[in-house]
Amino acid sequence: MKLLKSIAILGLASIAGGVNAADNLTVYSYRQAFLIDPILEKFTQDTGIKVDVVFSKNGIAERIQREGKLSPADIVLTSDFSRLIELVKKDLVAPIESDVINHNIPSQYRAPDHTWYALTKRVRNIYSSKERLGKLDINYEDLASAQYKGKVCTRSGKHPYNVALVASMIAHHGEVEAKQWLSGFKANLARKPQGNDRAQVKAVKEGLCDIAIGNSYYLGKMLADPKQKSWADSVYLNFPNQANRGSHVNVSGMALTKYSPNKDNAVKLMEYLTSPIAQQAYAEVNFEYPVNPQVKPSSLVASWGEYKADALPIYKLAEYHQAAMKLLDEVKFDL
Amino acid sequence: MILGLTRSWTLAGYIVAAILILPLLALLVQATMPDEAVFSHLYDTVLPTYIYNSLILMLLVCVGSLLIAIPAAWLIARCDFPGRKYFQWLLLLPLAMPAYIVAYVYTDLFDYAGIVQRTLRMLFEWQGPHDYYFPQVRSLGGAAIMLSLVLFPYIYLLARTAFMEQSSSLLHASRVMGCGSWRSFWRLSLPMARPALAVGVALVAMETAADFATVDYFAVPTLTTAVYDTWLGYGSLAAAAKLSTIMLLVIFAIVGFERFARRKQKLFQKQTGIDESDRHVLNGSKMLVATAYCSVLLLLAFVLPFVILCQYAVDYFAQSWSAKFFEYSLNSLYISALVSALCVTISLGLVFVRRVSPRRMDTVPSRLASTGYAIPGTVLAIGVLVPLTYLDFGINDIYAYFDQKGPGLVLTGSVCALVFAFCVRFIAITIGSIENSYKQISPSLDMASITMKQTPTNLLWRVHLPLLNKGIFAGALLVFIESMKELPAALLLRPIGFENLATHVYQYVSDEQLELGALSAIVIVLVGLIPLIYLNRSLEQKN
After folding, report:
1. For A175-199, what is each residue's pLDDT tens digit?
2. Which of A142, A225, A320, B305 would staple A167 via disulfide (CB 3.0–4.6 Å)?
């Protein structure tokens, strides 16, 4: 009987553990907790509002949708724009009115209906082998050009960063031309899409390919890792499409959930995240470009040079997201 | 048998079975929901490739495991060579190794940037990838090899037992009639072992279908990864449920085929088994080949990956040995212990009803409850979430009706969902092992107990339970290790922010930095070894 009793106690304890106790803020984050922990600690110090962050790489929108009005989440932090759009599309977020935020974030980097806001910009760069290609003046369109046959590496096409890039190609060239480009790109691949952005740079270093696409901040991260420094040293970082429309920029962002139990405090935290202090921390910790124009990128990031960003508003990309997913399936990009 | 078995026992049995089968029904209902043409789009583009990959992978893994396992089982059961006693149980060790860990280690070794290809390039002065051919590790074939390496012990274990139990007089007879040892193997031993092999192959096929992490890491899209992508990439639960139904059809077809294939087989043999003296003593080159075969197999499937894992763990010990590591380990232990205890309790009830009930119908609850084992974790997750979410809302609605603040998401927001899913998936194991133990308890004991006017509860508690302890223990151990290893269901159902060892290790595998999660991986493997050693010992005692 002792055994049965302890089972019952364990069971009850686990139920109790699932219930949200205090009036803390709850943040569901697609971004790893260690990136934002220092910023949130500072926020708690300043305001006395405690924040619980839970990280998940996948499925946060689905979870909030399922949890409905019972969801404990107040704020969602994402690592790319498509997740923000998904939240809007599923009607899971609430618009906010905040002069502070509107002042801190340029209109290009927020939803027209105030349902979401970008926090950092992340450029989709093209890395090239120092040894075999040197620095390049290259366009995304060139990824499909015959001169790079068998020389291109990338992670899965279905990864949000790549889906966003494909969506921007559709936005600029239309679906038919984008599909041709995507098939050409696929035909140029040195190997089946696999691994993450860093693994592509590693493959360039090993000589498996000469060109890889990847976000710029990975270069900063690799330089900081003793084992990966040699990978980073073997490549140049190129900003694509500088002679024309500019490089494709994705954003990490935030949104207030529709059923947030703690809306006032949540808005305070969102305002804080756009403030120069928090933006500076984003820039330094993860080598990203802050959206707040008052804040400069870190010195390492600045050393990669100025670049021209694609002026296409982020929310425009959203319209082509589903089409991009379908194109990727149609050309069997990952298969 | 006439026994004061009250209706409440049987009724409880049916209710429990209904709860355990609920996810499957929910899945089928979900599959009929509209999905905004996502499924028809998949059907037109990538679905054929997913199905092809899944089927070919299953086929390759089954054939690969058979080819590896049968010679090993034969050598251990019927021959004698140095080290046989040790290989007998050492060859079970790969079962404790999650396939994605083996996959990661071999990719590290054999990939373009790995030590093998680097050495080759240095030796032959090749400049780039176009100067030579080397098979891709991250491919369908690669995944098949990795899965075969860790799944073959299922077939090995069953085939070994089958070969050992074959009566030696039958074999002597075949030899007397002029069959050489090869011929008697092909014409007698192998066909007689067919039922055991079929069970093993079905198990291997199911495990292959359920694998998520290996194919995901190797970028080989199968139905399992497609379910995950469709749910979380396209955001369509209904389309994911449709894919899941296809997958279940495939799996049930395999199980059905296995049953069908041996429907007419009846085996009659005296369970004498073979003696030590019947073992064929190998000498000279034959002995060398046998020892080498077993050693290489063990080396590839267990020793090498494990040693490399230990190497990673030593190199990155400082980063891995943290409070988090203990938290994740405790989470794993807690969940696994809870699931084992629940599975044992429920199975005892179900099997007991089946045992004492006079009606044939009453075998239904335990049969139904056992179907969960065939449902892959990814698919099961969908089936579990749908009904539990309804329940959660129902509970909160009741609170709201009385103007009370509801408890929030007590089921889907806590580990309840996870524990429930694990129970559905693994209860077949405890049901099986307890049923097996029951076979050894003579029904006359039950009758004696009735004559002495004992209630059913007393019969279970005071007579059966003490006699069943071995079966209960073995079943609980197996459920424990499976719960430690189960990844996809844990990944999808864990409360947000909750990590256990498996999800922790997988996160590092998918970030291509297993080095940092190696310590956790080692714990999974070591815990997995305990039941294997126990299992083998109990089998040896039987022989």
Report:
1. 999 999 999 999 999 988 988 888 8
2. A320
Q: Identify from B50, B414, B496, B508 which residue to disrupt to test chain A contact, counting A C-beta atoms within 10 A and taking the largest count.
A: B496
Taking a C-beta distance cutoff of 8 angstroms, is the pair A195, A189 a contact?
no
Q: What share of chain B is helix, strand, coil (3-state, %, to 5)?
A: 80, 0, 20
Q: Which amino acid is at A239?
A: F
Beta-carbon pairs below 8 A across chains A and B: 123
When CB atoms are compared, the residue of B219, B406, B410 closest to A18 is B410
- Which pLDDT score is estimated for A94? 95
Beta bridge pairs of residue A122? A250
Q: Which residues of A touch B229 (CB under 8 A)?
A: 158
**What pLDDT, on the 0 to 100 scale, is given for residue A144?**
94
Tell me which residue in A68, A325, A335 faces B49 most closely, judged by beta carbons: A335
Instruction: List, in order of start, the domains of chain A with CATH numbers.
Output: 21-121+250-297 (3.40.190.10), 122-248+314-330 (3.40.190.10)
Phi, then psi, of A290 in degrees rounded to 5: -65, 145
Tell whether the model's pLDDT for residue B516 goes beyond 70: yes
Classify B47-263+281-315 by CATH class: mainly alpha
Name the residue among A53, A58, A190 with its Cβ closest to that of B232. A58
CB atoms within 10 A of CB A150: 14
Q: How far is A97 from chain B (nearest CA, A)?
A: 28
Retrieve residue B11's tokens: 């009724």
Question: Least CA distance to B108: which residue of chain A?
Answer: A199
Instruction: Check CB contact under 8 Å for A326 and B41.
Output: yes
Superfamily, domain B1-32+316-543: MetI-like (1.10.3720.10)
